[in-house]
What we know:
Layout: H1 9-15, H2 57-70, E1 74-78, H3 81-90, E2 98-102, H4 107-119, E3 123-127, H5 134-138, E4 143-149, H6 161-171, E5 175-178, H7 183-186, E6 196-200, E7 214-218, H8 220-233, H9 239-249, H10 252-271, E8 276-280, H11 290-296, E9 303-308, H12 311-321, E10 326-327, E11 337-339, H13 351-356, E12 363-367, H14 373-392
Parallel strand pairs: 2-3, 2-4, 4-5, 5-6, 10-11
Antiparallel strand pairs: 1-7, 6-7, 8-9, 9-12, 11-12
The chain binds pyridoxal-5'-phosphate.
The site of pyridoxal-5'-phosphate has 14 residues, from helix 3.
Amino acid sequence: MDHRSLESLSTRVIHGGTSPLVEGAPVVPPPVQSATFVGGGPDGDPELLYTRYGNNPTQMALGARIASLEGMEAGVGLGSGMAAISLSILSLVEAGDHIVSSRFLYGATLAFMEHELPRRGVSVSWVDPWEEGSWQAALQERTRLLYLESPVNPTLRIVDLRPVVEVARGRGIPVVMDATFASPVNLRPGAWGVDLVIHSATKYLGGHSDLIAGVVAGSQERILAVTRLLHLYGPALDPHTAWLLDRGIRTLDVRMERHNRNALELARWFQGQEEVAHVVHPGLPSHPDHALATELMDGFGGMLAVELKGGAQAADAFCRALRLATVAPSLGGVETLVSLPRLTSHRGMSPDQRVGAGIPDGLVRISAGIEGLQDLTTDFSRALRAVTEANASA
Length: 394
Ligand SMILES: *Cc1c(COP(=O)(O)O)cnc(C)c1O
């Protein structure tokens, strides 16, 4: 179905990118769990179907769905978020080229840019996206793309896409964005002029913490370039995983509604608690990007962070006392997950560096699931009582 004719994202997650069903067809297309397909003979179609090529029918259906969600021409699924990120970038650069990137990135993306790209002769300049004019100032003659991620982990800062797109347009180069934390429900970067939109589909798109996948959306031509690298590097999305991901996407809109609501309600609830020094959530007026989030996004997202009084020991006591929320890295699943940036995403930094980056050691990151709010606040109340006890005995 032509996604442009579907008004609502609630409809597109279910029907976007599909063809009308014929009599007797399965309402849910089964996964095409085959590595290869009949073809290649003397009288056949010259286009060979092979699952590593990304043209297995289940992979193709997922690509069409992604394109529909993002309101872009084409989409492709890959074996992980990092496969989507690395191949998207590699599809746009060659030796001698240069990238300008926000310095606030997912750890593996940062490592890829710092360590892998230089091995291929590609250099990167880092910008602070909240510093006026920083993108323009970092441009070089061989700058081939601008890269950013928003919202940022775990400060949930939001990058204004408009000046980034303006600078890129001025130079005729693309903007590539990792919008994992937003999900397509809360933000469609393509509508703001971003050229390649990437998600770790392991998170909200899959939504059940049970698969690893990545997706990219963009123009036909740009997605073809990513797909060409998929042939060579090989991180194809297994058809069964593609099918599970497509299944997850069908409930994305209703899940995000609850993720958004639970995170905002939890943020407000934590604000009223004595053991809490500060609550980070773009839906709170105290967040530095609250106005920007309101302007750019349709929802504030399912993530929040809470700074506990008492630093690292308070954060540890909080985690140990949880019974419903689970301490685990990752995010975006139906279950509430809690993690400590000082022990996970930002463990490579010193405590002082972390404070400088807005990530004090008492910070607890929460991926709000879709459970009942009352059960979550009961669990978090217990954890906060443990913080009081730990701080009293310190
Ligand atoms: C998890 C994550 C990734 C990496 O995704 P994988 O599916 O684990 O490869 C990239 N960017 C962001 C923002 C993420 O949260």
